[in-house]
Amino acid sequence: MEKAVQQTDYDALSCRLSAIQKGYLPSPYFQGQQCHYDGYKELHLQYLNTLKTVSRRIYGKVNRVLQSSFPVMNFGTYLRTVSIDLELNRLLADYEGSPVQVLDLGGGSDLRMVPLLSSFPQLRFVDVDYRESTEVKSKVLWRNERLKKALNLEIDEEDSGMIRSSRYKLIACDLNNISETKQKLGEVTESNVPTIVITECVLCYMGQDESQALINYITHHFSPGHWISYDPIGGSQANDRFGTIMQANLRDSRSLEMPTLMVYNSKEAYAKRFMPLEARVEDMWHVFEDIPPEEMKRLKSLQFLDEVEELKVMQTHYVLCKVDWKKPCIT
Ligand code: SAM
């Protein structure tokens, strides 16, 4: 199961590369003032090229998915990437000039940290994932001169599966194991520095008790804090079969479970996992409908989007959740 979960990162990476290949990302509309996307396309291509030298098997997998570049998939990737980036960049701009840390939990092959670290000098960025994932990522980052320089990697730890440069840490940790998580995060973070947590398609793969323990720990330990989370929801209407079909497909095709898909199956249920904090949860169809007309025109010119109903069904079953807390949360 752990391996199957870890491999979902290759899908996320393929989807991002596909959206880049077709021109959805980076968004010129949001670039600059609202989002920092400098060198976005090139750094992803550099990552892919170096991945080929680190693992032909993973490179092959990523490349295969990349060949089937459907508009519905690219729109979905665009929506999740841009909506997280807008919130993240907004929060970082608010803290501009003061120390701030981002914890990208289950960050996989995410490369957000590269443009962000160069745009926000006071930012420290911590990436956490399973060891198998961090070993591949650290090798790629070490072997690619441009990425290595951008992240200021100095101490040679290529084979250790971790990176501990001055502002960027890559940590191998099983987030389902709360004692390990406390210990490892404790070594590289400060509890009283403003902290932004990202979980992009990660909580859905964790156990219910384990994800709750993670939320409780982070919201008690770090303050002030902000959490940006993106996940699928199973659907709560009696005739809604999205979640059950998704679970069955994942189980049959990959032996993969999403243990809480039907527990946090609506926006309201998803928000409850952060109680007593107030969580603002919106579905991604709402985000789609909020795209400014000029940007929508650009997106629709990239590929012919015939399957609007399919896009709507999918995107009403994915949510973006934002939570803020000023003091450690006491439950
Ligand atoms: N957040 C990245 C993104 O959106 O591009 C990767 C998303 S991928 C679908 C899910 C990631 O969460 C994988 O990299 C997986 O290894 C990681 N993950 C899930 N459960 C985890 C756990 N218990 N401990 C560490 N990483 C975990």
Keywords:
SAM-dependent_MTases_sf, 49% helix, Rossmann fold, eight-stranded mixed β-sheet, Leucine carboxyl methyltransferase 1, 14% strand, S-adenosyl-L-methionine, binds S-adenosylmethionine, Ppm1/Ppm2/Tcmp, methyltransferase, alpha/beta, 331 residues, globular
Itemize the secondary structure elements and their pairings.
Elements: H1 2-21, H2 40-54, H3 56-67, H4 71-94, E1 100-105, H5 113-119, E2 123-129, H6 131-143, H7 145-150, E3 163-164, E4 168-172, H8 178-188, E5 195-200, H9 208-221, E6 225-232, H10 242-254, H11 267-272, E7 279-283, H12 284-289, H13 293-300, H14 308-315, E8 318-325
Parallel strand pairs: 1-2, 1-5, 2-4, 5-6
Antiparallel strand pairs: 3-4, 6-8, 7-8
Helix pairs in contact: 1-3, 1-4, 2-3, 2-6, 4-14
The structure holds S-adenosylmethionine.
S-adenosylmethionine is lined by residues 5-6, 8-9, 12, 106-108, 110, 129-130, 133, 174-176, 200-202, 205-206.
The order of strands across the largest sheet is 3-4-2-1-5-6-8-7
Per the CATH scheme, the topology name is Rossmann fold
Q: List ligands, each type once.
A: S-adenosylmethionine
Task: Quote the beta fraction.
Answer: 5-15%
CATH architect. name: 3-Layer(aba) Sandwich
- What is the total tally of β strands? 8
Question: Which secondary-structure class do the elements indicate?
Answer: alpha/beta
CATH level 1 name: Alpha Beta
Order of helices and strands: HHHHEHEHHEEHEHEHHEHHHE
